[in-house]
Amino acid sequence: MFNSSHTNYKTFIKAVNNDETSCLEAVNHYLVEIERNKDLNIFLEVFDKDAKDQAVEIDQKIKQNNAGKLAGMVIAIKDNICYKNHKVSAASKIIENFESLYSSTVVKKLLEEDAIIIGRTNCDEFAMGSSNENSAFGKVLNPINNKMSTGGSSGGSAAAVAANLCNVSLGSDTGGSIRQPASFCGIVGLKPTYGRVSRYGLLAYGSSFDQIGPFSKSCSDAAKVLEVIAGNDKHDSTSSKKAVEEYTNINAEKKYKIAVPKEYLESEGLNPQVKTHFNQYLQKLKEEGHTIKEVSFPFLELMVPSYYVLTTAEASSNLSRYSGVIYGNRSSDAKEVATTFSKSRAEGFGPEVKRRIMLGTFVLSAGYYDAYYAQAQKVRRLIQDKTDAILKDSDLIFTLTTPDTAFESESINDPITMYLQDIFTVHANLAGNPAISIPATDLVNDMPFGLQVMTGHFEEDELFNFSQHLCNIGLAKG
Ligand code: GLN
């Protein structure tokens, strides 16, 4: 029989091997739970039949001792990740009924290792947002407190894990869309180094920022999934040829040199209670023999503006394909080429996506290119250089993931305030470094908050080691 302890993958797979439960029982359990939690609006579609078929097949393989590394791990995918012959809509009306003709590299790799894909999760339209309220199919409710936002844009994926509707889920992170919802929902969320995971089959938002990564309850499950999805891919020229390490060999013994940028802690919107906890954690780390180094990162205020100039520019180009010609809804009022484009796009896209396409088109336009786009590129370089310089002297950068715990749903209605929510997360995307959010043990007003760890490029192993150490000494859960 499947029981609640089996939502932990390690416990589950042991139980399957001892014939105490099966993959099919697990899938049936999650399907019931998904149905029971329907009002949270987490899943846009559940692949019940496929998931059951897969489970039967994998149960067989386990019996024959030839199942893959992720045998029976039940995984939900964000609705911007392609899975052959399944719908992928980016939570947008413009491609609401689009069916993918091929599988993304991550899905292929998961299936090859016998993971089970249970469904596609709600998100902000085209991954643009920090609250999940930009989905064309309604917001997701935070399972911890339904009045609160899950964060975004991968709010459905975060909530699915937090509500125990799957073992693990995949999200995408362009400016924090894995780490911020992980922080708001009290789970682990990892954005790998840019180039560590193939973007083939991820609907593009900001191509020089986007990365796919896992949400999980534990560092070890995130490591397990990363080990499978990472690696070079001939379909993505920006994927790295660097060998994939064995992330699951977590070794939490080392004494670290930890950089703490003072500007983060002096940030205006920082919740004083969250700050007090964070300072206590630094004290504890010192007592454990680690070195805490206060550093200066003078670009904090420039990060959100440069991020939004660069990502909207990339988005305006990436989203031009949804024109009603090859992809996307075609307006019934379309008469010729111009109205096919304008009417189809006007009907299909939501307000935030339109705002960003216009902003991106503006910053790339001939008269303004140098003032905005080129300038933001220069700032990006300064941010990258400064981050490298800090990480030359330290092993990692340790901050909070967000300045506060989850905000109330629909409490933020101006775009700039919403953009400023990303102040601590966009750093890793601008610089390309890997970063993880793990839930602090303490709560503030009964809500969780995340601790963010960033390491040098392709040092995900250290990210896991240090995160596990935070858990071992009681500062974080995971
Ligand atoms: N909130 C950020 C944005 O709206 C990040 C989104 C993301 O990482 N996909 O751009």
Task: Give a summary of the structure in a few sentences.
With 478 residues, the chain is an alpha/beta fold. It has a single domain (1-478), classed as Alpha-Beta Complex (Amidase signature (AS) enzymes).
Your description of this structure?
The chain is α/β, with parallel strands linked by helices and 478 residues long. The chain contains 16 helices and 11 strands. It has helices spanning 9-17, 23-36, 48-63, 105-112, 155-162, 179-185, 219-229, 262-265, 272-287, 300-318, 337-348, 351-364, 370-393, 415-420, 426-431, 460-472, and strands spanning 43-46, 74-78, 116-121, 168-173, 188-191, 211-216, 257-261, 291-295, 396-400, 435-439, 450-455. The protein starts with 8 loop residues before the first helix and ends in a 6-residue tail after the last helix. The model has no long low-confidence stretch (mean pLDDT 97).
Compute the number of structural domains.
1
Order of helices and strands: HHEHEHEHEHEEHEHHEHHHHEHHEEH
Question: Largest sheet, described in full?
Answer: 11 strands, mixed
Broad shape: globular
Strand order of the largest sheet: 1-3-2-4-6-5-10-11-9-7-8
Share in β-strands: 5-15%
Q: Structural class given helices, strands, pairing? A: alpha/beta
| Overall CATH class | Alpha Beta
What's the multimeric state? single chain
Q: What small-molecule ligands were found?
A: glutamine
- Determine the fraction of residues in helical runs and give it as a percent range: 25-40%
- Low-pLDDT windows of residues: none
Helix tally equals 16
CATH fold label: Amidase signature (AS) enzymes
